[in-house]
Amino acid sequence: MCRHLAYLGPRISLHELLFDAPHSLCSQARSPRHQTSGENNPDGWGVGWYRDGDAEPQRYRTVKPIWDDTDFAEESYALESGAILAAARLASPGATIVATGNAPFLSGPWLCSLNGAVKDFHHGVGDRLRERVSAQRLAEIEGDSDSEVLFALTLDRLDAGDAPAHALATVVDEVLAIAKARLNIVITDGHVLAATRVGNSLFARGSLVSSEPVDDAGGWCDVPDRSLVVATAGDDGGDHTISAL
Q: Total structural domains in the chain?
């Protein structure tokens, strides 16, 4: 059910996290170790990254499996950033497989990814959630995925002045009040990232959060279910805090 990761810290090559690490996003997508739904993630992938001085991120998305995307793998050697969010997709039942349905989703400075699914989203639950989205944010939704609706709800909370962590916690509560769901959501604006673990795996080390550890080195924390992670960057790689949802 998708794999994703987000990083804040000193500038690194995108290639390192996406393709080169012992259990990079590419490896997680093709041969996941902690995925409970689906054997791999073949329905495309995407990455967003922030360049120095830019308020809004660059973004790349494709329906090609990440392990077949040799062109971007080669290009990623030359791309460096101190803030990255990437995801490989296993599409939810009923979702259209198009690039616009892939994370990361983008609005202004914000990137978002969902590793999970909202039960019965295409059978009434999605309509109930859309009713809660502002007209402005509803107009920005491009596709039919649950991910975009959850991002729109989160953006509404951010627009209202909520801190990222509180915005995510509120959206998780709203969704779980009306439907069963797996809700591993991560958002970042390049300065702070917030991520939830509800139903799927999530690990954290410093200011890197990932569906699975990207290597076998120490220091990884297995984030408890129904928890919220907030991470900030620093010269030493940054750090994170974990709290209950």
A: 1
